[in-house]
């Protein structure tokens, strides 16, 4: 198990173990170091020639470009290539020569696929994301420099770990290995809230002493599945959700007592029952074991009540920067009719409502709409209405009724928007569209559509919402031609 020492980067200790004699200028296997063929595939030496859009190192092998996790441009490494069906799987075996951009991360998150680029210096991460956005957005103009995070660690307000057994059959907590249900034991993550990680460790220790069994997906036996800790970064409130396969919690009262004794900072504890067979962390049913069942957080000066199940941006520091930029781009005067499409719990719309005439929020998820309405009341906001609907269908109806809209914020899921939505936008003809996206590839697709249908991309602003991971967020402004 990796040990937590400090949150900053340590200097890389991936010292070259042997210096290659000849310089290998091409990117093919080094002839001095012939490829080794074995049952397990081919192992050979490569030089990494760039990064994929997911932050993986690129190598060339027999005319094919392969991706290698945890490898940086310019680095020399021994890589094992295994054929898997029609694909080739390339895995880093040993680093021979390391890059100056490499740092030694304190946790094994990259193995879990969670922090795919935590081995990269933060400056290099920013450069990488900028380049991906620049390349994708080329048809629309030059992107602004990415808005980075001052302390790109410990930022998550929602922290989840999963329980399992180690070889000695003791309960452990950690994260799943990629594409598998094997748990990599971890006592923290570089992007988790530090208090949350300590609470998760205590829960794991208590589970051991209370002899709670982890749930086994294969047999359906056992009790504890996950622990989720949500933190109100500004309020200091903390929610602990124990996710279990059944409501029969043996020793519940003593468990809660012990947990609260070690962590008096916890403000509420819930038991969530999840007996499903998919990869969702939370089930439908929940029971408040202590406190009021929700926490409060403050974002852009507004208060939001967050429940265990509600969707909420996971990096509040960068979310404030993203929303401020989005609202600046909307250039509101106080009179406009504003649509907040794909609004989640209404955060963008509620922040914008202070500078707009009225706001119409549209969101598919019922619970999120309920949260949005509750949050607008909580903040005394009277000029925002929220509707539970498919954003595309709702916009089609608005276009049919010739409704008047001045500004549209849209923040669709990774798959992007759809033609119903975009074609209705073109009919409604808002002056400005502010498009927030967590997937620049689908964003580019939608921007192309809007460019052909009356709009011009005026500004492209990447924001680093997810440091240490390869995820990229960008906000763009479109105006009517
Ligand atoms: N703007 C919010 C949420 C963005 S996440 C925020 O900043 O927090 C995208 C949201 O789109 C999710 O809440 C998801 O439930 C919602 N969504 C997904 N498909 C949708 C659809 N077809 N119509 C409306 N909302 C949708």
UniProtKB/TrEMBL annotation:
<dbReference type="InterPro" id="IPR029063">
    <property type="entry name" value="SAM-dependent_MTases_sf"/>
</dbReference>
<feature type="binding site">
    <location>
        <position position="342"/>
    </location>
    <ligand>
        <name>S-adenosyl-L-methionine</name>
    </ligand>
</feature>
<keyword id="KW-0411">Iron-sulfur</keyword>
<dbReference type="Pfam" id="PF05958">
    <property type="entry name" value="tRNA_U5-meth_tr"/>
</dbReference>
<feature type="active site" description="Nucleophile">
    <location>
        <position position="438"/>
    </location>
</feature>
<dbReference type="InterPro" id="IPR030391">
    <property type="entry name" value="MeTrfase_TrmA_CS"/>
</dbReference>
<keyword id="KW-0004">4Fe-4S</keyword>
<keyword id="KW-0949">S-adenosyl-L-methionine</keyword>
<dbReference type="InterPro" id="IPR012340">
    <property type="entry name" value="NA-bd_OB-fold"/>
</dbReference>
<keyword id="KW-0808">Transferase</keyword>
<feature type="compositionally biased region" description="Basic residues">
    <location>
        <begin position="1"/>
        <end position="26"/>
    </location>
</feature>
<dbReference type="GO" id="GO:0070041">
    <property type="term" value="F:rRNA (uridine-C5-)-methyltransferase activity"/>
</dbReference>
<dbReference type="GO" id="GO:0051539">
    <property type="term" value="F:4 iron, 4 sulfur cluster binding"/>
</dbReference>
<feature type="region of interest" description="Disordered">
    <location>
        <begin position="1"/>
        <end position="44"/>
    </location>
</feature>
<dbReference type="InterPro" id="IPR030390">
    <property type="entry name" value="MeTrfase_TrmA_AS"/>
</dbReference>
<feature type="compositionally biased region" description="Polar residues">
    <location>
        <begin position="27"/>
        <end position="40"/>
    </location>
</feature>
<keyword id="KW-0489">Methyltransferase</keyword>
<comment type="similarity">
    <text>Belongs to the class I-like SAM-binding methyltransferase superfamily. RNA M5U methyltransferase family.</text>
</comment>
<feature type="binding site">
    <location>
        <position position="363"/>
    </location>
    <ligand>
        <name>S-adenosyl-L-methionine</name>
    </ligand>
</feature>
<feature type="binding site">
    <location>
        <position position="411"/>
    </location>
    <ligand>
        <name>S-adenosyl-L-methionine</name>
    </ligand>
</feature>
<dbReference type="InterPro" id="IPR010280">
    <property type="entry name" value="U5_MeTrfase_fam"/>
</dbReference>
<keyword id="KW-0479">Metal-binding</keyword>
<feature type="active site">
    <location>
        <position position="438"/>
    </location>
</feature>
<feature type="binding site">
    <location>
        <position position="313"/>
    </location>
    <ligand>
        <name>S-adenosyl-L-methionine</name>
    </ligand>
</feature>
<protein>
    <submittedName>
        <fullName>23S rRNA (Uracil1939-C5)-methyltransferase</fullName>
    </submittedName>
</protein>
<keyword id="KW-0408">Iron</keyword>
<dbReference type="GO" id="GO:0070475">
    <property type="term" value="P:rRNA base methylation"/>
</dbReference>
